[in-house]
Design brief:
With 412 residues, this protein is an alpha+beta fold. The chain has 15 helices and twelve strands. Helix 13 packs antiparallel against helix 14. The relative contact order is 0.18. Its main location: membrane.
Length: 412
């Protein structure tokens, strides 16, 4: 093997210019692959982290996976009923205090009950449809990301006495209201009450900043005419990766629907998976193109070194050694190109992460999210070495089949 390595190195050194061009081609492909993978995975991690942070990791609601059977269906074995009025069941989580206590006993995180209802906010002749949350301020601050996004005030101000409300800054601007303004909240049942704005938040998500308002739980229960009722329990876990496991256990215990953040955003996660498949397919295609350069170089070497091949085979070198010789030459180009590609990729990552991006929504400059991950380097190298191996093996197999007698006699 040592002799084969020496011969391969001599062949490569004899065509240094072509080898340099092929190696640089591999280096650029590996470098751009590393930078692209870092950018794609970094953006994905940043998006998922914002997604996970924006909503509860698990949410237990008053829904059921399957609608409950009507009493007539349970009492009579009839095929179909006509003219029956379904039971108008007052929605809500049953035995909310006991359910909350039971979940708090084993859930590895924080638990907060809430009453979520649809309402209309009115102020100065303007109105907007909103989602109204009745909350316990101290517990909500532990599970909601909104607690970190207050421009003025906080959840604690809801417990200061009186009818107080906090809302998104965009919603307040839309209504023309400001802190201290008295906003009327009207529910679907027609009940209305005035609330004083004591806090504004800005999450950067327009759908939340323009449509979410928070009041004390008792105020929401009174406004909706549902005393002591809650219809959602929001859970923030210490480890978001366990959300699906916790949701299944909570649903089995409570008997009502529990949704993890993964289930709630399943379509988005599937789209991210498809995007990754597309990215690595493109990388493989680029590596294949670089492999053609290696194939061209090694094919040229095998043609020029035909007499050397004949002499080596005449001396007793088997066909397997001929294949290894030219395969080693292809792998040398791929290996050197991969090492240079690591430097190119690292430099491109440094360049990308240094580019400031100004986004008015976030109130200043931000930077591209990159993932500095060693597997990106290893994966790009694996693609490059695989392409170099295939590109080196094909002419190596042809060289191994050459008849030394025909070569020495000058046969073509």
């Amino acid at each position: 093997m040592r002799l084969l390595l020496m011969l391969a190195f001599a062949h490569v050194r004899g065509r240094m210019r072509q080898m340099t061009v092929a190696g640089l081609g591999v280096a650029l492909v590996v470098g751009f692959s590393i930078a692209m993978a870092a950018l794609m995975q970094g953006s994905q991690q940043d998006f998922v982290s914002q997604l996970v942070d924006a909503i509860p990791h698990v949410e237990v609601t008053d829904d059921l996976r399957r609608p409950a059977r009507q009493p007539a269906d349970q009492a009579f074995a009839a095929a179909e009923f006509f003219g029956l009025h379904p039971v108008d069941d007052q929605r809500g989580i049953r035995n909310p205090v006991a359910v909350e206590a039971a979940l708090s006993a084993w859930v590895p995180g924080r638990v907060a009950p809430a009453l979520r209802i649809q309402a209309v906010a009115r102020y100065s002749g303007r109105e907007a449809g909103v989602v109204l949350y009745g909350i316990l301020p101290r517990q909500e601050a532990q599970v909601s990301s909104v607690a970190r996004d207050f421009v003025t005030g906080s959840f604690a101000d809801l417990a200061a006495g009186g009818n107080n409300v906090v809302m998104g800054r965009d919603l307040a601007d839309k209504l023309g209201a400001a802190p201290g303004s008295s906003v009327s909240l009207v529910t679907g049942s027609g009940q209305a009450r005035n609330f004083r704005i004591v806090g504004l938040f800005h999450t950067g998500t327009r759908s939340r900043d323009e449509a979410e308002v928070y009041v004390a739980l008792k105020a929401a229960q009174t406004l909706s005419g549902r005393p002591n009722a809650i219809n959602t329990i929001r859970i923030r876990l210490d480890d978001p990766a366990r959300a699906q496991e916790i949701a299944l256990r909570a649903e089995a215990q409570v008997g009502q629907k529990a949704v993890s953040w993964e289930e709630a955003n399943q379509s988005i996660l599937e789209a991210l998976t498809i995007r990754n498949v597309i990215m690595y397919t493109v990388v493989a295609a680029i590596m294949l193109v670089a492999g053609f350069g290696i194939f061209n170089i090694v094919s040229t070497i095998t043609h020029e070194k035909a007499r050397d091949i004949a002499i080596l085979k005449s001396l007793g070198f088997p066909e397997s050694d001929m294949r290894r010789l030219f395969l080693l030459e292809g792998l040398m180009i791929g290996g050197v190109g991969s090492l240079l590609g690591w430097l190119v990729g690292y430099g491109l990552c440094l360049l990308l992460v240094s580019i400031p991006i100004r986004l008015e929504e976030f109130g200043g400059a931000t930077r591209l999210p990159l993932s500095w991950s060693p597997p990106h380097y290893l994966l790009a190298t694996a693609f490059a070495m695989a392409a170099a191996g295939v590109a080196g093996y094909l002419p190596a197999r042809r060289a191994a089949r050459l008849n030394p007698v025909d070569i020495i006699r000058g046969a073509t």
